Amino acid sequence: MTRAAFFVLTALADQPRHGYGILREVEELSDGEVQLRVGTLYGVLDRLTADGLIVLDREEVQQGRLRRYYRLTDEGVAALDAEAERMAAGAGAAKRRIAAGRAGAPARPAGEGPAGLLPPAAPGLAGGLA
Amino acid sequence: MTRAAFFVLTALADQPRHGYGILREVEELSDGEVQLRVGTLYGVLDRLTADGLIVLDREEVQQGRLRRYYRLTDEGVAALDAEAERMAAGAGAAKRRIAAGRAGAPARPAGEGPAGLLPPAAPGLAGGLA
DNA sequence: CAGAATATATCGGCTGCCGATATATATCGC
DNA sequence: GCGATATATATCGGCAGCCGATATATTCTG
């Protein structure tokens, strides 16, 4: 799943929204950090629809403007949930390894044992994702 | 930052590694879920080097095979840390909104108040990333 | 001796993101 | 009234990046 697709699904996770609303919502929920572009949106919407992760919920005409609302399917919710899980796991793995790196390398101010040997603690700290 | 770049940085976070070692390490640290391809690796390595996030640590010849070791720069560590933070925040936002969606829509079996109003708790739960 | 693993690297194709552009209506300030 | 901005849709071409295929070379295993 691409980053753009992830944020579209996230924007739709609490309620159905229309295209322009998704744009604004992604910016708001990411605290302005992620800006989903108009040129990106419709391709993502088409792909997610084709993949069965979202569906066209309804079309409304509000104040003379057409609004096309999309919502998550059950499959879409499951996919978003799984992706969030993967991201959290990846983030956790990175954090743990950064900590392991800080503990392993700079803890030794100058020369010590043989040459380039790792400190005994390092391998076990790495751990997996699950 | 691309996904591939994130995993390369993560693989290098605890200690310097060579290209083929990064490939194996990414697969291992992700519990087999992420498979970084050979055709992807060297482009990523070049870009990360150009961006100053990694540097060539040393070159060794072990058992007749050349090994080119890379390591994270301070900037690389900071970038990886920031990206991990963003991913964790994104994952958290998705999880919260999924929960809000489940609470908002299917919790009401049939018609109730006005029309399409959200339950009072919903807006506050959405929250930002930071 | 053949095949797999280790280790490097390149290239073409395809996917996907983005900026620009187009169209249309409503609103706001001047 | 008129231009600028906001709302709302959509398309297209360029560019970046991932992947499969391919190439080369050595070591290890069967």
Automatic annotation (TrEMBL), chains A, B:
Region (Disordered): 102-130
Residues spanning the membrane: none
UniProt-listed InterPro entries: Metal_resp_DNA-bind_regulator, Tscrpt_reg_PadR_N, WH-like_DNA-bd_sf, WH_DNA-bd_sf
Residue ranges constituting the Transcription regulator PadR N-terminal domain according to the UniProt record: 8-81
Top-level taxon: Bacteria
Biased composition (Low complexity): 102-119
Protein name, as recorded: PadR family transcriptional regulator
Species, as recorded: Streptomyces tricolor
